[in-house]
Design brief:
By secondary structure, the protein is mainly alpha-helical. 58% of the residues lie in helices and 11% in strands. It has one domain: Arc Repressor Mutant, subunit A (Orthogonal Bundle).
Length: 122
């Protein structure tokens, strides 16, 4: 996992929680989510990843969707976070802090033990 392919994998891994975080603020329609994620400085590299992700989140019971047909506007499917989605997001936030701290420590050589000493070698 080096270079752009590595960043793509990282983005893909955090996209679901980012969608949940946006929906925590208010319900949104698909294109609105695409725009918000794209505006988040490189978080979204392909519009085509959001709609399958929304379907997976809905199938997992983390979001719901409903069609809304406002007068003078075309019908749009709006997505909302569920209680299960809120719990999932809260767990991710807790895990993320620990994970980011651990990865940052390794990348910046903080608290990395000399493994040769832990294996009984001088």
């Amino acid at each position: 996992m080096v270079g752009e392919s590595g960043m793509t994998e990282l983005r893909r891994g955090v996209l679901g929680p980012c969608v949940l975080a946006l929906l925590e603020l208010r319900p949104r329609f698909g294109l609105e989510l695409v725009r918000d994620l794209a505006a988040a400085d490189g978080l979204l590299t392909s519009d085509g990843t959001v709609y399958p992700l929304l379907n997976r989140l809905r199938d997992a019971g983390l979001v719901t969707s409903e069609w809304r047909d406002a007068e003078g506007e075309r019908a749009r499917r709006y997505y909302s976070i569920t209680e299960a989605g809120k719990r999932n997001l809260a767990e991710f936030r807790t895990d993320w802090v620990q994970f980011a701290t651990t990865v940052g420590g390794v990348l910046n050589h903080i608290a990395v033990r000399d493994r040769t000493h832990t294996r009984g070698r001088p």
